[in-house]
Amino acid sequence: MIVAFSVTPLGVGEDVGEYVADAVRVVRESGLPHRTDAMFTSLEGEWEECMDVVRRAVAAVEARAPRVSLVLKADIRPGVTDGLTSKVATVDRYLGQD
């Protein structure tokens, strides 16, 4: 499965990068395939693995912020691996960039 999620601290002001870094650190230390961009972090693994990482990422931000917002989207497709790369490669192929 692929999980795209965003953890946002609330009540800490406009500068939230330091808090978001706490969540991304959890993802990077998880050992699961992942990508982070300006809006979301995508993570690939089994259901239990992904949800555990999301839970710990939220907890890392929650430890320092009075309130946390979580946005989560999941692509649950058993048997598929390397979706983070293969989905983008498919689109690039259709765009003629392969």
From TrEMBL:
InterPro entries in the cross-refs: MTH1187/YkoF-like, Thiamine_BP, UPF0045_domain
UniProt xrefs under SUPFAM superfamilies: MTH1187/YkoF-like
Annotated Gene3D superfamilies: 3.30.70.930
Domain Thiamine-binding protein stretches: 3-91
Any Pfam family the entry gives: Thiamine_BP
Similarity remark: Belongs to the UPF0045 family.
Protein name, UniProt field: MTH1187 family thiamine-binding protein
Source organism of the structure: Streptomyces oryzae
